[in-house]
Amino acid sequence: MNVVIIDDEPKARKLLEILIRENCSKITSIFTAEDLISGVDIIKREKPQIVFLDIEMPEHSGLEIFDFIDSASSNFEIIFTTAYSEYAIKAFELSAVDYLLKPLRVDKLVDAIEKAIANIGKSHINLKLEELQKSLKSSNFKKIALPIEGGIKFVNFEDVILFKADGMYTSVHIQNASELLISKPLKHFEELLEAIPTFYRPHRSYLINLKYIHEYSKRDGGYIVMDNGETVSVSKDKKEEFLTIVQHIG
Q1: Which of 64, 192, 205, 236 is most solvent-facing, going by the fewest CB within 10 Å?
Q2: Are the C-beta atoms of residues 46 and 135 closer than 8 Å to each other?
Q3: For residue 159, what are the contacts with CB-CB under 8 A and spacing of at least 6?
Q4: What distance in Å separates the CA atoms of residue 211 and residue 29, rounded to the nearest whole number?
Q5: pLDDT, tens digit, for every residue of 219-241?
Q6: Domains annotated on the chain, with CATH
Q7: Could you state, in chain order, the average pLDDT of each consecutive group of 10 residues for the chain (250 residues)?
Q8: First-to-last CA distance in the chain?
Q9: Which H or E run contains 200?
């Protein structure tokens, strides 16, 4: 399996190469480049399965890779290496783009490689990067990436009515659209959206968008009816908190 490392820092390239050789036996050949343009040349020549790509480099950012490669013919996975702030990392997560924070950790590296191997040719990285670039240019993030069969669906936060747990899957209810079943647990979405104040988890099985609450009933221990007719339970330990929150809505 071929890997390309693109990073303008010689020490960073060498460290990553050493860590890969010592911990990832599936990777047999490692090629390195100090900038995006020379890295693209190597990619076209060696046809790697995985590309480790630094974001902040002179002349061209790693995010510009598909300006130089035909995205339709690219069948490699990208793992970004970055020292970006927490703000920017949120954009990565919402766009479902894989990344490793510097300084690198071996366990995170191994996990990222295993995930990349499993996703080769299936992750639609060009679509994810397009959305990531939009998010990084914006002062706030408006969309979340939902992996669906055959691709990625980007949905505006404000259009999501609720997330409902379904085992290790999550059912996503969207305004004026069909319900989606996503192969991620509810906790994944709770963590992604924790900074979005309109989302609230009133029960272990639900994460709701407060703007779509239709009514609250005190019957049967208390429950919420959403605009789409979905009935949402409220946990006993959340009831007081929830009632306080809804009193301040609007």
Answers
A1: 236
A2: no
A3: 174, 175, 176, 177
A4: 52
A5: 888 899 999 999 999 999 998 88
A6: 2-137 (3.40.50.2300), 143-247 (2.40.50.1020)
A7: 95 95 95 95 94 87 86 82 72 81 91 90 78 69 79 87 95 94 91 85 95 90 93 92 77
A8: 55
A9: strand 199-203
